[in-house]
Amino acid sequence: MDEERAVAEAEVAADAGAIAEALNAWYRTAARPLPWRDPEVTPWAILVSEFMLQQTQVDRVLPRWIAWMERWPTPAALATEEPGEAVRAWDRLGYPRRALWLHRAAVEITEQHGGRVPEDVDALLALTGIGPYTARAVAAFAYGARHPVVDTNTRRVIARLVHGHAAAGMPAPQDLVDMERLLPESDDAAALFNAAAMELGAVVCTARVPRCAECPVAAWCEWRGAGYPDNAPEKRPKQAKFAGSDRQVRGRIMAQLRSSAEPITREATLNAAAEGGTRDPEQALRAYDSLIADGLVVEFEGRVRLP
Ligand code: SF4
User: Fold this and answer.
1) CATH number where 272 lies
2) How confident is the model at residue 277 (pLDDT cuts 50, 70, 90)?
3) What value does the mean pLDDT take over residues 257-272?
4) pLDDT for residue 1 is more than 60
5) Is the dihedral of CA 133, 109, 292, 307 positive or negative?
6) Residue 287: inside a domain
7) Residue 266 belongs to a domain
8) Would you please indicate which residues are annotated as catalytic (active-site) residues?
9) CA 211, CA 59: separation in Å to the nearest integer?
């Protein structure tokens, strides 16, 4: 890091208190009224939202989250169901292993924590499907604990605001250090700041066209101050195209099983996966086997069903 950059970053860190105040004030009036942000919402409802939001956009998550919470308002309610019901209710949110993990986590919470979502980050990390991000997010948003919570949107905000970069680099432990430096001291203000930074990245400091005229922290933004240099760090390799991918074929199999109340034959499943033989049968078989290996599909007496 050159000296000039180090000085600029130190200046932003020195202004952390004022930045947090401005961002939190903005969030109190501008945040989208998403139901999992309601102060009355339960830790379970927040945990479910975090599972769903991991790889899926808010507008697609909203109806599924509402339906999920109506049907399974507690971990114990979900734990009494077959895992396949969770997979069915996951519908088309994508990456359906998350539904299986969420079901397993509900069973673990019910059996090991008396049905109460644990507060402690280590206890949260011990649950199926919960990684460092989700554990900290639940501890912060459900229980108001002071932890840095850094998602993709926050990383972009920090990259621009603090480091003067057009975009964030690859995720790194330094992300948490950066966020910790900006985090206010009190638990409440810190939890709010975590949510506010994410929201800023989601609706104002967006990847393509940041709306700096509406930004509450524009006065401190290093990237803006430097005249928006084209200095994004090297990008990660692009995700393979969905069309024609094994993921798409897996999606076809899952859609067929979700819509079928009864188990169906293996042949019919593979035929649908290969779209009646118009697609690569080897790919259909590969996708099918991978779903079996993931536990998302179960073979039973020559028929196939959700777990
Ligand atoms: Fe992002 Fe613009 Fe705000 Fe900087 S001023 S943090 S680039 S929205």
Assistant:
1) 1.10.10
2) low
3) 87
4) no
5) negative
6) yes
7) yes
8) 50
9) 21
